[in-house]
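Hey, quick one: can you model this chain's 3D structure?
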Amino acid sequence: MINVKDPPRFNHADLRAFTEPVTVKAGHHAIFKLQFLGQEPVKIKWYSEGEELLDDNNNTKIEKSASHSRLLLSRCERKNTGEIRIKLKNEHGFIEAISQLIVLDKPTSPLGPAEVTEGSAICIEFRWRPPKDDGGSPVINYMVERQQVGRNTWKKIGEIPGVPSYRDTDVDHGRKYCYRIRAVTAEGASGVMETDEMQAGTLAFPGPPGPPKVVSAYDDCVNISWAPPSNTGGSRILGYVVEKRKKGSNLWSVVNATDELIKVKKYAVKDVVTGMEYEFRVTAVNLSGVGEYSNPSEFVFARDPKKPPGKVSNLKVTESSYSHFVLTWTKPEDKPEIQDEAKGYFVEIRPAECLDWSRCNPTRIITTSFSVKGLKSKNMYWVRVIAVNDGGESAPEELANYVLAIPSPVRPKFTNHKMKSFMVVRAGNSVRITVNFEASPRPHVMWIKDNVPVTKRVTISNSDSSSQLLIPSSERSDSGIYSILVKNLAGQETFSTEVRVTDDPKPPGPVELEENVPGTVTVIWEPSPDEKRDDRLHYTVSKLDSTKRNWTTVAENLFNNKCTVCNIMPGREYHFRVYAENDMGVSAPSESPTCWKEKKKEKCVVSVPTRKDCDLRCAPTFIVPLKFHAAPKGYECYMSCAVKGNPKPRITWYRNHISLNTDTNYYICNTCGVCSMLILRVGPKDTGEYAIAAENALGRAECSTVLSVKE
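Sure thing. Here's the predicted structure for all 711 residues.
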């Protein structure tokens, strides 16, 4: 059994006739037909601009048979213009053919708004844009009508060639006009495009031309050129007037008279003296008159051209970062008859992946250093420098190696001059440790506590040059040694600070007295509840002799729970108090029973006193107040006052009602009732009201002053 494949195909002559474009006028019918061969059944589809056409019995009718197909498009419109495609397909293959449909119609209206190119007392010249759609036929000419503003009639000016511009010379000075324009093709005239009002005869002088540029200079001639003014004043430029001025003079002299206008935008100034330095300016002239003068040109010597300078030397990079680097170089030598002195320099860079050089400075620089900015971080760049003078440019001097946009490596180094290795914080207050450093590239920063990474309740804030550890509300468990490690490829640096979080200690337990050796008493007490969690807690023992009125300290800085007191006299009564102390303050006392020594018996008798003790306690009072301070900026400031109170009051310093006791920028001390605070380097931020509060169980006292900083 033989299976013959017979895909659809066209006759070459029929196909050639089908591909010829079909041109019809709007409203007429267009017919496309094509014969074909191929095994049935054959599927036939027609397309217009890629969209399938369906037989709708109105505007589109498709006829199909086994050997040909016919497409009829009725009442064609301009929008039907486009590609017509037929596709044939059977089980053995498919084929397609393409033709074009061109529907001719009237053009659309010309496009506005109209632009006035010249307006004077004798004419109005304007232009517009051709129709967006010419209807399939070229524009032959334009029909123009004119109406004087204030009148109702339109005057037909006539038809003009197919150039979209018109110059109306039949105008009256000062009057306004409107114009209507139609485009005309072989298919007819378009709709109307109406212009805005246009006025004739207004005086509008041209703006200033661009500053003249020196093209070349010689002993007897200087060639200059300039750009036309951006504002022509609504009329065409008739020409230009050039003026010159010698350096050091205030007098401008005209190079060409107003009746000898320069028609082009360049001129050779020959009325110059060899060796003199000149500058030039230009003004434009239109139908209204002379316009504004341009900015003057650069000064130029009237002398023959110089020789280009030599290459720069010692080109190197002195500083770099992620976004810039700084170049320095040495200016080229001045060799008469070979190379003249350099008058400036251009710096050029080229990314490693690019072949084109780009100039970093649009105008030449006169210094022998330059900062190249706007670089991409960690990209590689090739760099070169070109010296220039009036004679031209030198050969470029290029760095031997590419430049990498990263900072120069710097080993981490701490910049805090007064970093504290130990700090005490009251429980509940914040702990803030700020460390400033310098390092390049940006280092990796890690904080640890007692050689273990810090917990999540600790907030770490890092920047390029500092790191801060913050505990918003501290607890006793936050006590420990906090260490910071700053590390980059150039090295590493570490620093540790011991932080002790504590509070006013609780008083010791009950106090007992023992007499084992004549003339001595051993004071024994139960430890304070804070002793186990504060290894810096210690005790102070005070004694009151019945023959005296004041308590005296007999032992301090005790880290155990007993103390032997000597020189106990027979026949006297003794009272003892034990205080717990830590870095934050002193606890309330724990008092012993009364102890007295009989003259004839060598034993200590303990009994409950029957008399009322003298109460020596008192509320805090300031016996020497704070004084007003005015310190120069950058100098240290020392504030002090004296306070008394029993029990010993707790001291708190404030600045603008904010506690300073835990602020490491202030050095606070309290010795025997003399309270002091030191600011090493005062600045404007230290200005304000400072207050000190003394508080114990019996009351509270405050004292304040003002610090002003002199610039």
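One thing worth noting: Residues 599-608 have pLDDT under 50 and may be disordered.
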